[in-house]
Write a structure and sequence with these properties.
The protein is α+β, with helices and mostly antiparallel strands and about 260 residues long. It contains five helices and 15 strands. The structure holds magnesium ion (2 copies).
């Protein structure tokens, strides 16, 4: 069952989403060759607790850390570790918080130093597809309209759209109805209504769409070992239109400063 949110609940969810956005913005200033994903995970946990919230993933389904950190061919659900990031890597950071009873959950794929042009394009196209999906989040449309827009944009570039993992409703639980696939047909699926809040999260592979799970029981990797990108926003429908509750502004401001 889809739990539509009131305007008051959406305001609380905006606060949770904004805290995730700020956490990712803080991390953006720390990502560089030589830094470990475990170090970044600890920084995020401290930052979230300092802001009077609780890490949303830590302990959820027994996940051991604050962040899912997925490097290169890892798609999602990577477990932070002590291995240093290297020049040319990409790292997808997925972060959740629980604050005032509501979850925020969003993700961004970062470049570590200089990356190959074909990987830079993957990141740009995957991010564009997230916004194309969001544009379809209009009252009266259906979830399939979001899915179709995301799939079509990525497949224009020959990228693999992951099937096994999908976006989701968000609220007092991290994963609520409906499922929000990144592939699908226009005009299919649940009708989009005012008060719907979902996490839209394209997971896009440079090569094959096929993935597999590592023996750690968590990490999802591409079947062909090629890199994968992941971008996620939390979006509400207000007055019939999409309102993005999270933001990449903190990240993008930090990256501009670093590159000056
Ligand atoms: Mg997420
Ligand atoms: Mg999510």
């Amino acid at each position: 069952m889809i739990k539509l949110k009131t305007i008051e609940e959406i305001e609380l969810m905006r606060q949770s989403a904004q805290l995730v956005s700020k956490t990712l913005g803080m991390l953006a200033t720390e990502i560089r060759p030589g830094v470990s994903t475990l170090y970044l995970d600890k920084l995020a946990e401290i930052f979230i607790r300092d802001h009077h919230a609780v890490p949303g993933f830590l302990g959820l389904y027994d996940f051991p850390n604050t962040l899912c950190m997925s490097v290169n061919e890892q798609v999602v659900h990577g477990i932070p570790n002590k291995k240093p990031l290297a020049e040319g890597d990409i790292v997808s950071i997925d972060c959740g918080v629980l604050q005032n009873g509501f979850y925020g959950d969003h993700a961004y794929t970062f470049a570590v130093g200089e990356i190959a042009p074909e990987i830079q394009q993957l990141l740009e196209v995957a991010k564009q597809s997230l916004y194309l999906g969001i544009e379809q989040m209009i009252a009266g449309n259906r979830i399939g309209d979001i899915s179709f827009a995301i799939q079509r944009h990525n497949e224009k570039y020959g990228y693999g759209v992951v099937r096994e993992l999908v976006g989701h409703g968000l609220g007092r639980k991290m994963h609520e109805s409906p499922e929000v696939p990144n592939f699908g047909k226009r005009g299919r699926g649940p009708v989009i209504k005012n008060g719907l809040v979902i996490a839209i999260e394209p997971m896009i592979n440079l090569g094959t769409k096929n993935v597999k799970q590592l023996s750690d029981g968590w990490t999802i990797v591409t079947a062909d070992g090629k890199p994968s990108a992941h971008f996620e926003h939390n979006v509400a429908v207000v007055n019939g239109k999409p309102e993005i509750l999270s933001t990449f502004d903190f990240i993008e401001e930090a990256l501009v400063k670093i590159n000056q």
